[in-house]
Amino acid sequence: MAGKISFPVGVLFSGSGSYAQPARQGFRGAMTAIAHINASRRFPFNLQAHHFDPAGEADRYASLCRQLIRERDVRHVVGCTTSWSRKEAIPVVEKLDALLWYPCVYEGFEVSENLIYVAACANQHLVPLLDYIAPRFGSRAMLVGANYIWGWENNRIARDILHRSGGEVLGERFVSIGDTDIDHLIDEVREKRPDFILNNLIGPSSYAFLRAYQALGEADDRFRPEKCPIISCNLYEGEITGLGHAAAGHFTVSCYFRTLQSPENDSFLKTLAALDPGAIVDAFYAQAFSAVVMIAEAIMRCGSDDADLVRGALRGQSVDTPLGAISVDRWTNHVELPAHIGRARADGSFEIVKRSHEAIAPDPFLTSTPLVRPLGRDEVRPELRVVK
Amino acid sequence: MSSVHVTPNFDGWRMLILHRPHRNVDALFAQCARIGAAAEQAWPTFPEARSAEEFDVLLIDADMGHDEQFPWRPGEAPLPLIALIGSEAPGRIAWTIAQGADAQLLKPIGSAGLYSALMVASYSFARRRALDRNVAALKERLARRQELAQATALLMLRKNCGANEAYQHLRLTAMTRRCSIEDVAAAIVEEFANHGLKNADNGR
Predict the structure, then answer these.
(1) Residue B5: what pLDDT?
(2) What are the pLDDT digits (tens) for A151-170?
(3) Which superkingdom, per the lineage (chain A) (predicted)?
(4) Which spans in B1-100 are helix H?
(5) Do B35 and A367 lie within an 8 Å CB cutoff?
(6) Which of A45, A297, B36, B99 could make a disulfide contact with A367, Cβ separation 3.0–4.6 Å?
(7) Does A308 touch chain B (CB under 8 A)?
């Protein structure tokens, strides 16, 4: 590939720490996409990856991001998995005029001019998930979450929606990130007997909870997933593969599942069979991959990796990605995405029980999304609508 | 607005930014659009033809603002105020406090900050309004304490009863008439002033 010019791209994911599994997925998705771009004849340039590993320490994200921009001369950083680390990196990209491509679902209530959000915010994950679950299982919920902004805010939104829509929150518990001591949560579930459990735990806490809940279900039928499922907004193939029967039967909402049948997914999986044959592809992987595809496509459109030009080249002009054709919303820097509902199988894949045929417009501040939802069991369910 | 789990919604809110045209104002316009609010800019004064009721919130400029910009006295703004602060000179901050600013935003204005400022300003304004109403009601009741004492004394004389019984009579009358106890007291005192003790048989 001699003679091609090269643009540096920062990759900022942790290879260790309490949220390492999804972070490694993001890393792998981004690196594979860079290899894919460089192998493609479509692009008259190469992307050169510069990876730094914050090792799961939130305080290292800002300094490593600064180093990528100042020392490695990158204009684009793909990375961060948690909202905590993203908030650390925002001031750096804003000050140094770079773009951070954040490829993970998050709770919303943020729009930075220097971020491109390549994943769902709450109106694209939590809202359609509750819309699907409550009419089928009931709207008496137990909320559990990791003790940081993701858990707090997602639980708060769920509580707000349930209160306004005639549902009920029977209990709410938070667990420190990385904590696997969750017996008290199981005790509370057994006592309160909810219709479903909203799981906003992350990493090892989430795995421990699912395993302990499986044991509870074996002891008491009332807590089998058919009667009282655990529902999540960020538990994908990469994590359920290691959980086997503990995850089976529970629900996840996502813009991407590996089992989705679509031309773009078929071609994506075919590409990966050659480039990254061992990958357990999931939304974290596909979103990071898509972010890199968007960067390359935008650089080709405007002939530069300048942050303003790249952002401008994607606003209102779609790019074909594994997530479908997506464009960047000019007001929010988020993307329109579908919200599919999957039920986990013991083999680590998802059965798609509700396929969303239309993309949902991003509404990070929940200003145009009605929070009174038709959650009643007896009401006729309208199809998922595009929220404008 | 009091419950902490309610998601605030500023969709359709109208804001006036009293600031000279500037990049900071452009940044505020962009933030407004994201949260569904409509913004207008004006300078140097609150537009003469407009009324405060046309807006849900007013953004004022701590750096160049002065009392004469507004058609109300300092501290009497009839809507929530957000101060845009550039220079953190104590005198300028004191000016925003005197205006009754409910929240603040530091310049330069970037991509964020307006949403939280709006949330703080609207809650704080609503709380301030509620407190003002409570204080006014309490002040009125205090001011009418003398009438209440007079009416109690008149009833004690007329009915030849003790203070507790007289007060109880006032209270029951107020309940029957669905008015305040102070109103009943005022009526008794007024009747006495007009007709003397013999005819002061309110409540029978």
Answers:
(1) 75
(2) 999 999 999 999 999 999 99
(3) Bacteria
(4) 23-34, 90-99
(5) yes
(6) B36
(7) no
pLDDT classification of B198: cutoffs 50, 70, 90? low
- Which of B7, B9, B34 minimises the CB distance to A157? B7
Structural domain range at position A67: 5-120+260-326
Q: Quick one: A40 and A151 in the same domain?
A: no
From A37's Cα to the closest Cα of chain B, the distance in A is 31
For the segment(s) B14-139, the CATH number from 3.55.50.30, 3.50.50.60, 3.40.50.2300, 3.40.630.30 is 3.40.50.2300
Q: Mind listing the pLDDT tens digit for each residue in B22-32?
A: 999 999 999 99
Residue A219 has pLDDT above 90, yes or no: yes
C-alpha torsion sign, points B62, B63, B65, B66: positive
Question: pLDDT class for B1, splitting at 50, 70, 90?
Answer: very low
pLDDT digits (tens, 9 = 90+) for B140-151: 989 889 999 999
Using alpha carbons only, what angle is made at residue A247 by residues A244 and A249, rounded to the nearest 5 degrees? Answer: 115
Burial class (CB in 10 A: 0-12, 13-18, 19+), A277: exposed
pLDDT surpasses 90 at B192: no
Quick check: B63 and B87 in contact, CB under 8 A? yes
* Stretch 337-376 of chain A: residues touching chain B, C-beta under 8 Å: 364-368, 371
- If asked whether residues A231 and A298 sit together in one domain, one would say no
- pLDDT bin (cut points 50, 70, 90) of residue B201 is low
Whole-Å CA distances, A183 to A55, A188, A209, A212, A243 = 28, 9, 8, 8, 18
Q: How far is CA A12 from CA A168, A258, A306, in A?
A: 40, 24, 19
Residue A137 distance to chain B (closest CA, Å)? 23
- Give the residue extent of every domain in chain B: 14-139, 144-199
Instruction: Tell me how far apart the alpha carbons of residues A131 and A374 are, in angstroms, rounded to a whole number.
Output: 7
Q: Are residues A345 and A202 in the same domain?
A: yes
* Closest alpha carbon to A357 in A252, A262, A285, A235: A262
> Where in chain A does DSSP place strands (E)?
5-12, 45-52, 76-79, 99-102, 115-117, 140-146, 168-175, 196-200, 230-232, 251-254, 319-321, 324-326, 340-344, 350-354
Does A58 lie at the interface with B, CB-CB under 8 angstroms? Answer: no
CATH number of the domain where residue A348 is located: 3.40.50.2300
Residue A163 sits at the chain B interface (C-beta within 8 Å): yes
Q: Tally the domains of chain A.
A: 2
Are residues A200 and A345 located together in one domain of the fold?
yes
CATH number of the domain located at residue range(s) B144-199 in this protein: 1.10.10.10
Q: Which of A155, A365, A388 to mutate to test the interface with B (most CBs of B within 10 A)?
A: A365
Q: Any chain A CB within 8 A of the CB of B36?
A: yes
State how far the alpha carbon of A360 is from the alpha carbons of A107, A128, B6, B176, in Å: 15, 10, 23, 58
For chain B, the straight-line distance linking the first and the last C-alpha, in angstroms and rounded, comes to 45
